[in-house]
Design brief:
By secondary structure, the protein is of the alpha/beta class. The protein contains 10 helices and 10 strands. The protein has a 10-stranded mixed sheet with strand order 3-1-2-5-4-6-7-8-9-10, with helices on both faces. A hairpin with a 3-residue loop joins strand 1 and strand 2. The termini are far apart.
Length: about 325
Amino acid sequence: MKMRIISVGIVAIILLLVFPAHAVDVHTVSSPDEPGPYHIGYYRVSYIVPPYGRYWAKIRYPSTRDGWLAPKDTSEAPYPGIVVANGLAGSEWNIKWIPKHLTSYGYVTICFTPPHKLSGDTTQWAYGFTGGIEKLKSQNSMWFSPISGMVDVETFGGIGLSMGGGGCIEATGAPNSEIDAAVPLAPAGSDAAKEAARNITVPTQLQVGNNDGMVPPDHVVPFYTDFIPETSVKEYLSITGGNHIGFIDEFFARIAEWLGLDEPKGIEFAEQHRVSRNYFTAWFQYHLKGLDEYYTYIFGEEAQNDLDAGILSDLRYNIP
């Protein structure tokens, strides 16, 4: 019996030498509406972009534990950067569910508040995106920064709501834009945003709730049909029962609902968040990280299932 145990052990050692454990890659992908595997560290910064002034922001990054200035997790560094923006009268702290979710998937995010929150000028938000990218690059290059060496300075995304969505489009279509994939949420249809959309060459996903009383679907779909070129990868989706305020943090959405600031929702805010993050996370995973397994969630069977089940009221995409 002892000899048999020794023989089995020798065989096991030989098998490990010939077929090492890491050679077997068992890779499973959880649904992108679920939290990602990374802890979230954070700290606050600001940056000035003339002529508008100072933008206040919070940077979040993959870390070894959750919390302020938590030690960074360099296991998969460098990570793509993503700039996030809220809309009119909003601040970074009432749309934090978006950067938190994206950071949990291995992105360094910066979410900003513009200097003039009540301005109707989408260019102010567009400058926030370009300034946010520059801030991530500068923080990455400083040895004493909490995200030193953490950012893939060649790969950036942008996501914004309402005025932030219009600014995201404007920044994405700007000359020499560094945004490689964009997700405008119920974007404001300013003339500047419409003009910039004609110059977009990178993958862009447009989201809206079909109950949106501030930026309804018929204000968003022209970005897909008329402005963003057919030569670009683009997607338009309408979330059944979603409204405008449903894209902000749930606590603030409930206050806005009580104040009657939007059309009544047809689904719970938590469900709108789930559907939205399912699509924008898959969009960035596929287009910024090149992870083919997320294709099904934006262009394939999983997306079609959502349309068939009525989770989406509209889904269109263009892959030249």
